[in-house]
Write a sequence for this structure.
């Protein structure tokens, strides 16, 4: 593990870890100074392509968006989601993870699941592929509505045990998606590696959000999403002015022309 991973591991119990998604260069560049981790998440399927599920996202889409995002990342650790069905067995997982790392120059990959994929996670890590875990809601496995995880005892035990198992096999951190508050606290306290929460309360070592939701580019009604900006309004406003100036021949003036 290089200094970028150590920087993140060392933040545990000291300072919160900032993680955001980015699917392209310009967004990555705009956030990179403030993030510890930039995730090219397969959420791009719903956010950019309006897919009803992340299951439709392909390896090629992930690679192309990651190559773009890579151009804007200098400071943060870059993690790329392995899309649905690209890690169904050890051989396929390793081949695809190597392809993602080679083509995108990312630092790590993220896989959804615990004990059900543990042999695959172990195989990647033995082969020197850094892995981020993902527990709680697993969008690649959900059919229908997303429900908070960890309300029932058997579910709580399973998520906690999965987190410990992933840590034992060497993942460098775990995303906890929509995990009930007290369970998120228990998992975070039980682990040496950091937890990164999304809809999982203050009790995680870091927070991740989809950037389009945070800046108000994407309409999201999810409870845990706070809009920190109104970028869609800003874009509309700029385009409205552009249109007005073109129609009134105020733009382009000589200053914006080649004379
Ligand atoms: O796909 C994604 O963007 C994610 C985050 C929301 C954690 O997995």
């Amino acid at each position: 593990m290089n200094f970028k991973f150590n920087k993140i591991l060392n933040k545990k119990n000291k300072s919160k870890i900032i993680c955001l998604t980015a699917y392209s260069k310009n967004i990555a560049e705009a956030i990179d100074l403030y993030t510890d981790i930039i995730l090219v998440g397969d959420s791009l399927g719903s956010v950019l392509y309006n897919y009803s599920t992340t299951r439709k996202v392909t390896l090629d889409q992930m690679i192309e968006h990651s190559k773009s995002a890579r151009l804007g990342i200098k400071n943060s650790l870059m993690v790329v989601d392995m899309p649905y069905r690209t890690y169904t067995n050890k051989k396929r997982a390793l081949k695809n993870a190597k392809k993602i790392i080679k083509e995108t120059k990312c630092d790590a990959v993220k896989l959804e699941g615990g004990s059900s994929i543990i042999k695959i996670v172990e195989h990647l890590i033995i082969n020197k592929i850094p892995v981020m875990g993902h527990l709680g809601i697993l969008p690649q496995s959900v059919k229908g509505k997303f429900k908070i995880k960890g309300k029932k005892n058997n579910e709580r035990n399973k998520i906690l045990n999965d987190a410990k198992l992933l840590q034992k096999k060497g993942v460098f951190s775990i995303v906890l998606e929509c995990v009930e508050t007290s369970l998120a606290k228990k998992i975070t306290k039980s682990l040496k590696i950091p937890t990164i929460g999304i809809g999982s309360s203050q009790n995680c070592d870091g927070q991740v959000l989809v950037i389009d939701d945070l800046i108000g580019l994407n309409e999201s009604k999810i409870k845990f999403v706070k809009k920190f900006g109104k970028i869609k309004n800003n874009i509309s406003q700029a385009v409205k002015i552009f249109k007005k100036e073109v129609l009134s021949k105020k733009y382009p003036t000589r200053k914006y022309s080649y004379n």
